[in-house]
Amino acid sequence: MTGANERSKTIVPLYIPVILAYLFSGIPIASYIIAWLGSLFIFYWTWFSPSKYYNEDLPIYKQIMRPIYLTQFVFAGFMCVTSIFYFMDHLGYRYFTQVEKGLQFQGSEKTYIIAQCQRLSLLAHAAIVTGIILKIKKEPIQPKNYTFYSGHNYLIGLSIISYIIGFICQYLPGLIQVALPIMAVAISCGAVLLVRGVVEKNLNYFLVGAFIFIGNFLNASLSGYKEPIITNVIILACLFLPYYKKAIIWSSIPVAYILLYFLPTYNTVVRSSWNGSVSAEEARTEAFETLLGNSNQDEIEETNWSFLTNRLSEIDMFTTFVAYVPAHHDYYGFEILEDSFINLIPRIFWKNKPNTEDVSMKRVYDAGVASRFSSVSAKTRPVVDAYLSWGIPGVFFTMLIYGLMMQSMCNLAEKLFGSYELGCIIVFNSLFQQLWRGNNFEFMINNIFYSYLIMLALCKLLIMFKIIMPKFSVKEA
Question: Where are the transmembrane segments (predicted)?
């Protein structure tokens, strides 16, 4: 009963800004601001307030890669907080400077839709956190297996095993979805070894970790996508934080500024290699020259503002869907969910299975978010698919389940692999990394299902290699 009371003291206040935002729905600008600030309130309430509810087996700064901290930060940060740039642009501002005549306080029809989307995002944020808190265990999670440590040498073996399996799976038909999360395990091992090498001044750990992690980071810099670079920076910052708190906290703002200011232009130039006119390495060199050239300042600012307003938060796409459903199309009901479960059938058993990308893009084309003749892939996010399926109730219950499932998978990983480091940092945040931002139902449910199977198989594999050992083996020894 005490635990339920403690949880309720944390959960109930999360919905105060949600209620306020809906009470002011007739004044869209005020409603948007309340909803936007509401997410900041949820961050504060669940991280810093006296009523915060968390697993007390570790100090907070040593467990920030658990869902209540890291996943909430990334998911709600992108879904809720970054929309401020789009909203400012809508009101006629550019980099905090008014460049167009502002709207009246009542706003326009578009303002009402933006505010509605922000309210839905806030409701989703509160629901996700509710689900996480309901599954948090304050007492230490009892491991099913005993982790066999020999310093951190087990990480070297795990990284090699994961990398080899992931590399092989990349070239086997239908196993690319297995390859990516397994490769992520190897990269996480590399990041942990790199940090341990620096902290413990262990040259072997540092060299192995640097080879894996920095090699992956350089490869990510050639991809033309922002997510791999940002993900690598976040992982490294989270791992260094317990040892260099002040340095990481003080450097977070300038690093975030650099990423948000320079990364969009950098990726735009690197993507010029996609048409084959130049190599990825040449495009990367050209990108650095563009960023370092004083004459390119206007180009950088133009590219970055477009990125901040249209691609960082994706709220523009959300507003298009909200205007489309249910005014021009009924709620989808279980249609999207049914397609998602059909997608779980491996293609090896169903050669004519519909292409998942084509199925998920159909509603994007129908709503007018993207043209069928364009090469863009504008996938929806969980909150969007939840709204398209069942409206406001769908957003709440879907995101509640999302939070419950997220924390349950983290709990299971720590139980199976015997520790926060191996279970949460390496296994959970590698295999279920897609949950950081979410994806459309078709791809996300597929990722959750197969990542769960991979986690169980990986546990068996590590027991076989005696990296982790069952309790009975330790007692018998």
Answer: 20-47, 68-88, 146-168, 174-195, 202-222, 249-266, 387-405, 448-468
